[in-house]
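Protein 1 of 2
SEQ + STRUCT:
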Amino acid sequence: MSQDISSPDTSRVLFGAAYYAEYQLTDRLDADLDLMAAAGMSVIRVGESVWSTWEPSDGEFHLDWLQPVADGAKQRGISVILGTPTYAVPPWLARRYPEIAAERQTGVPIPWGARQEVDYTHPAFRFHAERVIRAILDRYAGHPAVIGVQVDNEPGLELFRNRGVFERFVDTLRARYGDVRRLNDAWGLTYWSHRLSAWADLWRPDGNTFPQYDLAWRRFQADLTTEFIGWQAGIAREYLTGRQFVTTCVAYSRPAVQDDRLTAALDVTAANLYYGMQDGLARAEGPAAATAAGPAQGWAATGVPSLYFLADRAFSSRQAPFLVTETGATSIGGSAMNYPPYDGQLRQAAWALVSRGARAVEYWHWHTLHYGAETYWGGVLPHSLRPGRIYREAARIGSELARAGDLLTDLEPDADVAMVYSLPSKWAMQFAPPLADASGSPDRGSYERIVRSFYDGALDAGLQVRILHDSQLPALGPEDLARRFPVLYVPGLYVADDDLLDLLAGYAEAGGHLVLGIRTGYGDTEARARPEAAPARLTGTAGIGYEEYSNLAGELPVTGTAGGPLRVPAGARGTGWADGLEPAGAEALASYAHPHFGRWPAVTTHRCGAGRATYVGTLPNRPLAAALAAWAEPVSPAGREWGSGRWAETPSTVTCTRATNPSGQALRFVHNWSWDEVSLPVPGPVRDVLADDRLAAGDRLTLGPWDVKVLAEEGGDPRR
């Protein structure tokens, strides 16, 4: 057994896995913890999935079983994040209180047998949930290994249609609108004879066709989740000390989560971030190459840009470093989704997450299960429980994180450009998608397509993106926003109030470069189309307006304006959508090569006060989006500029990102997402943190297949 360490070290990036000794077929606690310690693991997450183990029958608590796990972790200097088990209710509770079952359709309970089938607003559930939470925390919150509590797990999976939830929704509308006449006017219920004469006339959501109703319903459901997690966090804080944190793990695909509001009630964001492996992490050769699709892998996002995007979303929740409480170790999903990583990919992904501000990287999970619904969701150890290839790579990561030490603590990733993210706009586009998918059907992923077209293009241009929630902008104000973020992308901001649109105009006036995308400024806070030329309240700022728009059945070639400042590559295309832009002072930067759509510019720009507004009237493909990003960025990208030299134009398989720790030390993370060895010159003096070598300007940096280098800049930050 390892030497006793009285106080776990939480000053460094935490590394570990979810650990369930209670799932093991045999008692192997000491062997598991010794293997973790040998691999440099410093944290485990425990207890969140086993309410029926904590409380096998009503009021009968079994709390002793976790004691050896917590004690053994402490002996080895491994920290513990303690989970509350409220997301997976025991069968006795479902049997005795069938009324707590959630309903996806009115009057049709979700059958018990998976997890998260419960209406967590129901008083019966709350009573029993609070009782088990208090029993667990009273026993273990004071344990010296416990550094924090995770309440619940991936909340917001369901949109509840239970009667009590619906009546609460009606009460919320009554409080907001006062009377049904105001609601009739706000939602336009004259249409199709939907005007209400009394609150009792409000129909259930099952057959709803009104976008205004759906947006209110989605906001309400997200508020239920925020209230539930805040309720649990309040209970946890009664038991925790100042050195401990409370969080929940956010799954960003959940329909009833508004993460900027949810995490405000917590001490730190924790996120479950899954990514496709094997060819899902390959970047093809060629300028501004698209990411290889790779195999579909269940819940995982596919592609290198998706991995960075997920991490940037986690940072955006609180605009602060975050914990990764779950990420993939091997296979992700069901028994037909077995795509374990190539050698090096686990290490690459871990460092990519750290480079974007991850304060912890934890795998789900330590040992691959031998039974149950997730038998083939692979852990660090395989079914044989013998350390193998994945364990060895994890051990290398643990060793490297320990070597880097507190150099990595609380990193803030660079922000060459910022991007506004709007969950209300996403919800509105899920209900009434503006784009079609490949089959011609409405694409419920329209909002993500719009946002990602700009995000992925910026990544291809070597830029880093800071994602800002629309709710976070007013606290900054236009002047501070322009000072901190010289370029601001605003694609797809369909749901917005007048003040937010005016703030964007003020941002451009104050000196920022405002880059607007399709559907921005088209709707109001009720998702009603505004009765004015689009983009509403921004036509003067952008120097354009439009009345007409069209979906695109195919891609349109886009060409640059002769002599214009935007260098449009040969493969540039407009996809999905075209706004009929009518310049009113704006300069056309690009146009469509098409007999009909060619009458309208594809991209315009306009000087506005001390800044500029650019409007992109289509969904740009990756080459066009990368060209726009490279042109819009007012200074050389942080990923390439370095003192008096420049970071060489990197192969398309390579990404170079930058982050700064609280002491001001800048770090570079250079990834090679391919099978081929690459070599590139270093523009300035650096120390290779993991090899402890020093390189001078002009020295060659060599990366093998699926390799990553962590470089500390030396000689200060030349950009300060």
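Protein 2 of 2
SEQ + STRUCT:
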Amino acid sequence: MRYSPPLDGIRAIAILAVLLFHIAPARLTGGFTGVDVFFVLSGFLITSIILHDLKDGSFSLREFYLRRVQRLLPNVVLTVLTTVLLWTILMPPGPAHQAAIHGLWTIFNLSNIYIWRYLGGYWGSAAEWSPLTHTWSLGLEEQFYLLYPGFLLLLARFQRRRVRSWLIATMVLSFLLCWYGTHVFPSASFYLLPTRLWELLIGAALAAHPALLRKETIAPRSLLGVRTLEAIGLAGLAMVVLSFILINGDSGFPGLVSLAPTVGTGLVLISVADEKTRLSRFLSSAFMVRTGKLSYSIYLWHWPLITLGKSLAHLYGKPQIYGALAGGVVGVLAAWCAYICVEQPLRRRGSGRPLRFAVIAIGFSLTAICCLLGISRRPVADSAHRFDPPAFLGEQYSAGNAAAGLEQAIKSPRYYDVNFPPIPPGRPIDRWRTGGVVHLYGAAHPQVVVLGSSHALMYSALIDNICREMHISVAFLGVDATPVFFGTTPNFNFASQSEAQEFDQARARWLREWHPNAVFLIDRWDNSFNTRIGFDQALRSLLIKVSPVARRVFFVSQVPAVKDGDQSNLRELVTWRIGNDNNLPLLYPDLKDPLRKQAVAIAQADVAIFQNLRVIRTDLPFYKEDGSIRYSSGRSFYYADGDHLSQTGAEVVHELFQSAIGEATSVSPAQSE
């Protein structure tokens, strides 16, 4: 097949978008859709190559796979080996161990499955800080390359006149599954082949057009006029560029919105087919072609080094953007070296090919051994045993899908040293329908009710112990990943919007039925704080529903969140940064600290409107005089992660909750004895 320069230009557009997105995601929120551009292009090229060889009678499955090995494996093996070694040398033990595990899955082309099972959503912190997250797309493409040639070969032999029809039918089925799955199982729909197959088949269907089967051409002169091709190309390019700018993590991706970058890429392919349009000439320019040739290598190397730069900046208290920029520059340089020294020499055919395969096999084996050695070294967050291991009992009090919440927590490297008691088998995932987690220590109906998200769960064991000691019945209606405000939306606790609405209705019904003495409103308030006016309106709307049915309503302030604490195991971070003077490092609140303080001020102002409202300042004990965070005392470590207290941390504010419950119920600890 004849080489087509514009195709390298399309690669250049895709890789530049991905690179900019990974360096500064806020600047190009949809840059990650460059991967979708790669998918369409890959389907087009692979189908073109296979059909061209079938037309010539020279197609061989064995040769196809050998070429794939030579083209793709050397650089990815070197990337994984380098990443595992860098993380072992430069990073704390937890991330190093995780990189070794992920590296092993990556070289066996299963990275997308690993991320789906163990790291969670693409925009979650676990995926964001894994150095090999970007290899999910490589795993998906390799799975496509493994299955697709045989499928296409069977079609070409037994359904020769219907090849394109079968490809289109399969594409439509995959898209419908993707559309449905984006709402029902979003993480799986993002990472797995069945729901992404349609993107590759867009390119495949274009390549299977009868006009594209002529010998020695990748795309003959189109039947369309040049002006029409110009318009098609510009429309396609606009769709792709607008995808880079307008799409973001809240767009319900992939779903319907993914049609923009994929269909846009298909239109660009049609436009540049005969290489006569201005868009084709632009994509064939020297810079675009050179960038496109480097695109695979850049894709492999940029993300690990950006992540390393950000991680080191975070570990040593520097701005992350500096680390990301440095990592991006070094990543491009490393990609160029790998392309010249590894990718190009080892992909050649002809004499010496067996030796090149031997080199690839040795590199693969060495990388696998290094990954296995890294896996065998179990991470220890606190090798000096400075602190007692933290515990988090919150999921025991979840009124929702506690098992799913616990599973997500256990998957995250942030929690590998945190003690999470197991959820008993067979526990209902909708306990909110029956009042939540109810403990009747006294009256026949709960006198104390706890509402909120995981921040409510982190105080639940403490509140439960206080109520038991004071012989006061209590109900926990907190649900992980679910804000306290009414207007709940679907998540892993609620499969649909109607079920989420039913949860809101159930909470309101239980409160009206019980008329509790005390209702605790506990949440991560900074996540709900868009504007001061908006938060005030949301809080008042909540209080209008809760205040009339309770004797006392307690707004519980949010404890300080550690700057960049969501990206690290906090105890590991602390022990890693202990200096030669053996002093514990200072940890400071993140940039949302002013929002948390504004939320408290708004709640305090609302006390004048809602006479039974009280504000509990649980945040104050965790601030030091210099503005840093009090995260430990002696052997006690107060935080389970960057914004959740451990059980020991929750006990710090025991008296505040005990006093509040006593005030609301008119029961003192002495009376309960």
